[in-house]
Automatic annotation (TrEMBL):
<feature type="compositionally biased region" description="Polar residues">
    <location>
        <begin position="1"/>
        <end position="17"/>
    </location>
</feature>
<feature type="region of interest" description="Disordered">
    <location>
        <begin position="1"/>
        <end position="52"/>
    </location>
</feature>
<protein>
    <recommendedName>
        <fullName>Large polyvalent protein-associated domain-containing protein</fullName>
    </recommendedName>
</protein>
Length: 361
């Protein structure tokens, strides 16, 4: 997750949320039976739980599952010594993680299958989330100047969540909520294998690993020859539209629990995600993000645009715009932005009937 202290994306969210969103708090009235059942399924306290009950939950899940954040106990201890008030910060990010998981599983329960719920339940625990001292975090994950703003990440392979230490606890709470949303939307890893032949008739063993978080898809292809020679290639799709959707759902989750975000991230991408959801409908968007049904979202964009390449063009242009943002050009390439806006604007008017076909599909 990268921070952006410019425009306020949360203002865009606020415009489409009900007026009482800011007033809702952790000590809200008891939830309905359906929400209580979903909370029970994940062992997360219902909304009416007290702060003490949540503290007890955090204590129970400590070290439930071991994530390899550190090579040895000494490295782990050194990290904690370099972080001022580590225990308080750790409890804050753990609480934000659990609340994001609880509230999202309740609100979007129709889009999670049982396998996803069991995965989240099995992985829950403070061992999943770690705060890294800033010098180490920057050296390991944000060495490039453009990446320096990164405040946290969720590793696609093992699912651990890494938060960058800073003086402002609100920043870490926001970041852990964002990365937890990535974790909630992660789909099961898929691996396919086959034996084939290369151009020179050499036998090859080919394996394909497919990862998906939200609508972000990654495929890694590994080709191994009989003599052990290996070639690896990787490609990805929909990365920065996915970041916009992730932050969109994160802001809404924080507002729902009475915690207005303190900084902005992926501001323009959030605006585009909001526009897209308005065009295709909340059901199609949530089904793609939480349920992994990207094909339905792709069909909606192409159908409502009247162009078979609209979905791929949309994501290609969003990715290109994101890469054009630099410290000297914080607004990014205006021509590319106009191209993205045009694709989204074209999904209206006479194409409204296409949305009905999508809903039927």
């Amino acid at each position: 997750m990268s921070s952006d202290f410019g425009k306020t994306a949360k203002d865009s969210i606020s415009n489409v949320e009900s007026a009482d969103a800011h007033a809702r708090s952790f000590d809200a009235p008891p939830v309905t039976d359906v929400r209580e059942q979903r909370s029970a399924a994940t062992d997360i306290p219902a909304e009416s739980a007290t702060q003490e009950a949540l503290k007890e939950k955090l204590d129970r899940v400590l070290d439930e599952k071991e994530y390899v954040h550190w090579e040895n106990p000494e490295a782990k201890a050194r990290n904690r010594e370099m972080i001022c008030d580590y225990d308080a910060k750790k409890r804050a990010v753990d609480k934000a993680t659990l609340m994001t998981q609880r509230d999202t599983l309740v609100k979007y329960s129709d889009y999670f299958d049982q396998a996803a719920i069991e995965r989240i339940r099995a992985e829950i625990g403070s061992g999943k989330v770690e705060i890294y001292n800033e010098p180490y975090f920057v050296e390991k994950w944000a060495p490039a100047e453009k990446e320096y703003r990164i405040t946290g990440l969720r590793e696609m392979q093992d699912g651990k969540i890494c938060i960058r230490d800073c003086e402002n606890a609100d920043t870490m709470i926001h970041t852990s909520s964002h990365e937890s949303m990535h974790d909630l939307s992660f789909q099961a890893k898929k691996t396919e294998s086959e034996h084939t032949y290369g151009a020179d008739k050499t036998p090859l063993a080919v394996s394909r690993e497919k990862l998906q978080s939200g609508i972000h898809q990654i495929e890694t292809v590994r080709c191994t020859a009989a003599d052990g020679a290996e070639a690896v290639s990787s490609k990805e799709w929909n990365r920065y539209l996915n970041e916009g959707a992730t932050e969109m759902y994160t802001i809404e989750a924080m507002l729902d629990r009475g915690e207005p975000p303190r900084f902005d991230s992926y501001t323009q991408e959030v605006c585009w995600a909001l526009q897209l959801r308005e065009k295709v409908g909340a059901d199609t968007m949530a089904g793609a993000y939480f349920g992994g049904d990207v094909s339905r979202l792709e069909y909606a964009v192409n159908s409502m645009s009247g162009a078979e390449s609209a979905w791929s063009d949309l994501n290609d242009r969003i990715n290109a715009w994101h890469k054009s943002v630099t410290p000297l050009c914080p607004e990014g390439d205006r021509t590319i932005k106009a191209e993205v806006d045009a694709i989204l604007d074209n999904m209206s008017g006479n194409n409204a009937r296409s949305r009905k076909r999508v809903l039927k599909k």
